[in-house]
Amino acid sequence: MSKLTRSFVDLSIVVPAYNEEHRILPTLHQLHAFLSQQPLRYEIIVVDDGSKDATVAVVERAARESISNLVVLRQTPNRGKGAAVRAGMLEARGQIRVMSDADGSMPADQLPRLLAPIIACKAEISIGSRYAPGAQADTKQPFYRVLWSRLANKVIQRSLVPGVRDTQCGFKAFTAEAARDLFGRARIDGWAFDLEILALARRSGYGIAEVGVAWKDDRRSRVNPLKDMWKVIKEAIKIRKNLRHGVYELTAGA
């Protein structure tokens, strides 16, 4: 369905997906079940990032049979999570736009907590955090994931987004204006896209609220601590160079 033919909605949920045929359907049904009980208009946008499995077929069937306000975008070939989220955010029609991972690690009932700072006009961006006050986990994270997250925070985030405890949590909300501006200027296609968006937001004067959320650890995570940390480091270096050379300002004025 074309963006031009879709009507305005209050809330867009953007779900990036790559080879998620086994995990995404419960996530979509959970989101739909929760949101259908709320007094707002919403859409769920799944952005398939060149999956090689049946992810697209599974989502399209759900859109036909059970979730009428589900939109499927196809991005080929595979470009990365950052590119998928960017495409979804720019395609979205919501006044508030949320990115949420396909694994359902952030339960739908945490949405009110995430959206509260934006609804109260206290910030243009609200990010879910596994380390801020109020955060809860159903199980303890594996050691390698804790190490990966903590290293990312100490080595990289503090130089780009000081004061933010958890930039990598896949649960973030933006006003429509902030989403169009920031994702319209973003360049990073891979894991470090969160760092880029938040660094741009800080330098552009957007208010950022960090909200402790309850989350579920999915032991099927595809994070490779060494390989993915190196990717994030390389992308973070690129972000710093882009900021230093005014690349994002050039993009905004193009």
Question: How would you characterize the overall build of this protein?
Answer:
The chain is of the alpha/beta class and 254 residues long. The protein is 43% helix and 19% strand. The protein contains 9 helices and 9 strands. The chain has helices at 24-35, 55-65, 81-91, 111-119, 143-160, 176-185, 193-204, 225-244, 247-252; strands at residues 9-17, 42-49, 70-75, 94-100, 125-129, 136-137, 171-175, 208-212, 214-215. Strands 3-2-1-4-7-5-8 form a 7-stranded mixed beta sheet, with helices on both faces. It has a two-stranded parallel sheet with strand order 6-9. Helix 3 (81-91) crosses helix 6, helix 5 (143-160) packs parallel to helix 8 and helix 7 (193-204) runs parallel beside helix 8 (225-244). The longest helix has 20 residues, at 225-244. The mean pLDDT is 88.
